[in-house]
Structures are given as structure tokens and as C-alpha cells.
Design brief:
Vanadium-containing Chloroperoxidase, domain 2; 18 helices; 512 residues; mainly alpha
Length: 512
């Protein structure tokens, strides 16, 4: 008996050790839930790209007592009767929420494609080619600006499509199969939300369209995810085929309009290297003695020097210039020397806690970058709050557009001042060598913008979000990547960017 007890204790001790090392321990328990609110009036919420929720027509469905619908119910029962264990896994996976899952898929793709091109035998860095996405180097290089943009367009497409779907759900009010036929026993929680058009199919089609454009080398993978997402709704008894078909058509139409904006937002010119000479001259005129220069061998061209000219979501270019941070400390000032001295002191006596923070927030190659990090935080918070599908999408759209705006505004600042990195003064870093100017800190700007928006949506968690943003900002000092002024001004800048997203949210008719 004592031996058995000892074995049990050792087993549970082993489990505790495993859990303590599990990097996913802060993830929510992924189970389907009944939303805290169905947000039945969401069909009147303000959209980003659509002129109105009625812009794309969804035809009226057949009535629940029609012969056509009854035939669909019979087909659904036959499908459900053949549900396998693998089908059930898919049901459970997608039951966590379509918006939640597609955002997760996008982040995983971003991490997979976050690999900077290597130099070739000629000492040059070949550019990824969108027409040959799987050639070396693969397209895209999912750096922080790219990821902020991809996730913003994804979230906006999901949100606009769902607002339109809610409009038609309210208009036609065709209930879910189990509400129309008691013999249908669904495998997921059923609410009074109308089933036509299917919200999951709307999100799946919109997401698939955006992600195929952003990650063209992943079409087979995304096709398989799309098919599974749609099938899972029928395996679960949540939708009949016409619900799915109507949702898919609406999602694709909305995504096509969203991508038409993406094609004209200026991203195509973001890597214009011909502009950097003028930027450097401007910085020198402002008093920057040692402009930033790549410390890699061979020297790597600066990352997306014209990303600051990409179209923003929540404010115009004049506003962006108006909120641009002032010039940082220059080399020959005592303030600059103080910041440099702080980095040298950390370099000599970095604590374990500083090292932990620097590495946790590194978000470098192979990660889904700071924008992805904050999208995950937002998705988890919305999941914990049991948000409806459309409110989940609103959360990610507000955070996503704020993050993209933060990236644009930060990159505008970086290349306006073109300030040197600490590495140009002899400091080394173990958390990656960013290939762009120092001021302001991207981590700080992204994190402050996201934390500001999340604090508005979840005021009870504001101190938690603000603490995370501050830690993310400090991590760049602890990692010897940035001077203190870069991070402090990045936090201020990010908050201003976040405030514009909040102003947009307060005017969207969502009741928050």
C-alpha cells in the first residue's frame, strides 16, 4: 500500500513539474460555451469596409416547414449518424469559436513564416517572391509590420462579415436545426441565435480568403481547414447545408471587398530602399550624428523603410504626423549618456528576472511577433468573457487595427529620426538584432496600443494589461535592444494610437 501511495505521489509530482514547464498553461480551457450575450442587435453595428450590413444580399431561406428544408434536415440526420471519433475531435476544436480558431491559425502561420531571408553567395539578401511563395526565401517574411497588417485585415473581414450575418439572421430568423426538429440532438450548445446564415461559415470563408492572399503558399492547408470548419457544423448538427452555403457566399463577398482595400493601402511600396538616403539626410539635419546602420555582415537592407506611408485605419496622415514623438536624446547630451550607461550596467549585471523578461517578450524569428502576442491576449480575454462570435470579432478588429496603426506610426517615427541602435556603441544582445532604426521601440508602441484598447473593452483587467505592456517595454531595455527613451516614448505613442481605436469603438453602436 505504501509503495502504491508513493508511486501516486511521484506521479502527481511529475504532473506538477510538467504543468510548471508548460508554456500553454496561461491559455483558457478550450470548451464550447453559451455566450454571455447573443448580441442580437449586432446587425446594426458600424462596419469598417462595408457601406452597410445590407451591401451584399443574402437571399431569403426556405421556411422550416418547406419540403426543401425538411430534406436538408433528413440529410443532416444521416450525416450525424455517421459521425466518427475524428469528426468529434473536429467538432470540439471548432466549437471553441470560429473567430477564435481562425485567429489562432493565422498566428501559427505567421510564426512559421517569420524567418528573415539569408544572404546568398554574392552577399545579397534576395527578396521573397509572392508568385513563388515556397521558393527560398519563402513569401512572406512575416515580420512585425507584416503580421500586424495580416491580422488587422483578417479581423476586419471577420467582423464586417459577422455584422452583415447578424443583420440577415435577425431579418430571416430561421432557427437552428434542433430548434426546428426535436429529433436533432446537436453535439454543441444551442442558443436562440438564428442559424441562417451560418456564422461559422461566414468566418471560415472570410478568413480563408484573407489568409490565402497573405500566405499564398498555404493554400492546400487552408483549403483543408475551410472544409473541416464547414463540415464540423453539420457533423455537430448545428447547421443545414443552406445555412453553410449562404454563410460562405457572404463571407467571400465581404473578404473580396476587404482585400480590394488591402491592394491599395501602399504596402506594395513599403520596401522602397531608394528612399533611405533621403531619410538619413533628414535625420542628420535634425541633429542625429550617427544614423542607424545594419550591424550584420553582410549589411542587411533596412526592413520596410516606407511602411510608415501605409494607410492607417483609425486616423489620417496629418494626425499621424501630429502625434509623432519628438526628437529623442542626441549623442552628445547627458540624457543620452545616462541611457547608455543604464544599458552598460545591465550588460555587466543583468539579473535572472531581467533575462527572463527579455527572453519572454523577445518575439523574434519563429514567433508570431508582438502583434500576434497581443492578438492572442485579446482572443483569450474575449474567450474568458464568453463573448459572442460577433463581439469576439469586434474585439480583435479594434485591437488589430490599433496594432497595425501602431506599427505604421512607429515605423514612420523610426525612419524619420533614423537613430542608432545600442549595438553601434559596442553593446551586444542575445535576443536578436532588429534591422531598423532604434527610436521608438516597436514592442512598446505595439504593446501600449493593444493594452489601451483592451483596458477599454475589459476595464476590470486594465491593471493586468498595463503591467504586461510595461513589462514588454522594459524587456527591450533588459535585452539591450533599446535605450530607455525609446521605450518610454513608445508607450506614450502607443497609448495615443490606442485612444483613436477606442474612439472608433465608442461610436460603433455596440453598446460598449
Amino acid at each position: 500500500m505504501k509503495k502504491i501511495l508513493k508511486t501516486v505521489i511521484l506521479f502527481f509530482g511529475f504532473v506538477v513539474i510538467l504543468l510548471s514547464c508548460d508554456k500553454t498553461a496561461d491559455e483558457p480551457l478550450i470548451e464550447a460555451y453559451i455566450p454571455a450575450s447573443l448580441d442580437l442587435t449586432a446587425g446594426s453595428w458600424k462596419t469598417y469596409i462595408l457601406t452597410s450590413p445590407n451591401e451584399f444580399t443574402v437571399p431569403a431561406p426556405k421556411s422550416a416547414n418547406s419540403a426543401e428544408y425538411q430534406a436538408e434536415i433528413s440529410a443532416l440526420k444521416a450525416t450525424m449518424s455517421g459521425t466518427t471519433a475524428e469528426n468529434q475531435k473536429a467538432i470540439n476544436y471548432w466549437g471553441a469559436g470560429a473567430t477564435f480558431r481562425w485567429n489562432e491559425i493565422a498566428r501559427e502561420l505567421a510564426a512559421n513564416y517569420n524567418q528573415p531571408p539569408a544572404s546568398n553567395a554574392e552577399g545579397k539578401y534576395p527578396m521573397p517572391d509572392a508568385t513563388k511563395p515556397l521558393a527560398d526565401p519563402r513569401f512572406p517574411f512575416a515580420n512585425p509590420p507584416y503580421v500586424s497588417r495580416a491580422l488587422a485585415y483578417l479581423s476586419v473581414a471577420q467582423y464586417d462579415a459577422l455584422v452583415s450575418a447578424w443583420n440577415y439572421k435577425s431579418k430571416y430568423n430561421r432557427k437552428s436545426p434542433s430548434k426546428n426538429d426535436a429529433s436533432v440532438s446537436a453535439f454543441l450548445p444551442v442558443t436562440d441565435l438564428p442559424a441562417y446564415p451560418s456564422e461559422d461559415a461566414v468566418v471560415a470563408a472570410a478568413s480563408h480568403s484573407i489568409l490565402v492572399a497573405m500566405f499564398p503558399g498555404e493554400i492546400p492547408f487552408l483549403d483543408a481547414k475551410l472544409a473541416e470548419a464547414k463540415d464540423a457544423r453539420m457533423w455537430a448538427g448545428m447547421n443545414v447545408q443552406s445555412d453553410i452555403s449562404a454563410g460562405e457566399a457572404l463571407g467571400r463577398a465581404v473578404a473580396a471587398k476587404v482585400m480590394s482595400k488591402a491592394k491599395t493601402d501602399g504596402m506594395g511600396a513599403a520596401n522602397n530602399q531608394a528612399l533611405t538616403a533621403g531619410m538619413i539626410e533628414n535625420a542628420k539635419k535634425l541633429g542625429v550624428k550617427t544614423p542607424w546602420a545594419s550591424q550584420e555582415i553582410p549589411a542587411r537592407p533596412p526592413m520596410l523603410p516606407y511602411f510608415g506611408a501605409v494607410t492607417t485605419w483609425n486616423f489620417d496622415k496629418a494626425t499621424m504626423v501630429n502625434i509623432r514623438p519628438g526628437i529623442p536624446y542626441l549623442e552628445d547630451t547627458k540624457e543620452f549618456q545616462k541611457d547608455l550607461a543604464e544599458l552598460n550596467e545591465i550588460n555587466k549585471r543583468q539579473t535572472r528576472e531581467q533575462s527572463r523578461i527579455a527572453n519572454f517578450w523577445a518575439d523574434g524569428p519563429g514567433s508570431y511577433t508582438p502583434p500576434g502576442h497581443w492578438h492572442r491576449t485579446a482572443a483569450n480575454a474575449a474567450f474568458d468573457a464568453k463573448f459572442s462570435e460577433v463581439r469576439m470579432a469586434r474585439t480583435l478588429a479594434l485591437v488589430g487595427t490599433a496594432l497595425m496603426d501602431a506599427g505604421i506610426a512607429c515605423w514612420d517615427t523610426k525612419y524619420y529620426y533614423y537613430t542608432p541602435r545600442p549595438q553601434q556603441f559596442g553593446l551586444k544582445t542575445s535576443v536578436g538584432l532588429p534591422n531598423f532604426p532604434s527610436y521608438t521601440s516597436g514592442h512598446s508602441t505595439f504593446s501600449s496600443a493593444a493594452a489601451t484598447v483592451l483596458s477599454y473593452i475589459f476595464p476590470q483587467k486594465s491593471s493586468e494589461f498595463e503591467a504586461k505592456a510595461k513589462e514588454a517595454s522594459n524587456s527591450r531595455v533588459y535585452g539591450l535592444i533599446h535605450y530607455r527613451i525609446d521605450c518610454e516614448m513608445g508607450l506614450v505613442h502607443g497609448k495615443k494610437v490606442g485612444d483613436y481605436a477606442i474612439a472608433r469603438g465608442k461610436a460603433d453602436n455596440s453598446g460598449l
